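Sat 14:20. Reprocessing the chain from the morning session after the first attempt stalled halfway. Input below, unchanged.
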Amino acid sequence: MDETGTADVVVVGGGIAGSALATVLARAGRAVLLLERETAYRDKVRGETLSIWGVEEMRRLGLEDTFLAAGGCYATRAVFYDEIVDAARAEAAAVPMDRLVPGVPGPLDVGHPQACEALTRAAGDAGARVVRGTGRIGVRPGRPPSVRFETPGGVREVRCRLVVGADGRRSAVRRALGLELQESVPRTLGGGMLVDGLDAWPTGQVSLGTEGDLYYLLFPRASGRARLYLMHDVRARGRFAGPDRRKDFLRAYQLDCIPGSAMFGTAEPAGPCAFYPMTDSWTTREPVGPGVVLVGDAAGWNDPVIGQGLSIALRDVRLVADLVLAGEEGFGPYVAERRERMRRLRVTAAVVTDLTCTFSPRGIARRAAFQAAVGQDPSLGGPRMAVQLGPDRLPAEAFTDRMRARILALG
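Finished this time. Tokens:
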């Protein structure tokens, strides 16, 4: 941004999507202003894994070193401990995550606050003007658009060629466009907590599965640290609430299906324990307006039960950055690709919830039948494979009502 109050691009929101986009555009020589409300990024129990297709996006954007410097760790193996299979069989059937896509070491686990901090710093190092601690932000769409924002030093207004709304679920930029969100009805509540002291957990091994009325996911990092997640039926709201919620959470994690799960009882909480409704959302109209485009959660999000948030954000960043750097006036290709991508991921999230979060005898039977059936008909595994491989690597028929009906009929 120059001293006259102009910029090529103003990015509102310094989360994963916003700070990544600011970095990419600044490295390409664009004058970028990055506005972020927080002066320090905090642990809010957000998504902290890049699926394999997200790792590919990260690399295409030239951001791998930044994520690794933020403490990112690759997971090379997945073991699906579950109540329907004994631990020895689960370990024998472990999935080598480093062999699913040639050249990709596997999904990458990283702390959300640390990644945001590293990306924001990278944006500044690349020449972006970074302003943190901003107050009320007002966006005026148009050609050109402008952004008005509060700082400790007073109110500023900047004219630019493009405003990018990367300001999350409660996006002020989206409101400025007059866009509303449609949101699905939650079937589950999901929450998590960062813990230390899991040195006994195998390095680079992610695990997930169902036992009783809980679906668990474990994403390890270095030095015995891990992010633990639990999902339960939405009707059990408040199950992990109150002053003892962290103890209750770790007690619940001592599942019979996980070998040595007593280790979770002695783990040390290293962050908050919080639960949220698991929903999908989408804008009522295209997430663009005159001189404005939305990315990441501001444009609508996917049910976190399948952990695609960071991968979605980086795909958004690449598509928008490519169009900006090519000098394109519109964002039609981005809008069309995102619409179909998010539709497919909504189907994926629904199927995963059907299989892992149906806490009933019918749910157990369906999960067991699915494991047997997918060995005979691999097409049934398409929606679940999309979690790691990406929704565009699978045929369109994997994301149809007919496919979901076939899976629901199992068991």
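The two ends are 60 Å apart (CA to CA).
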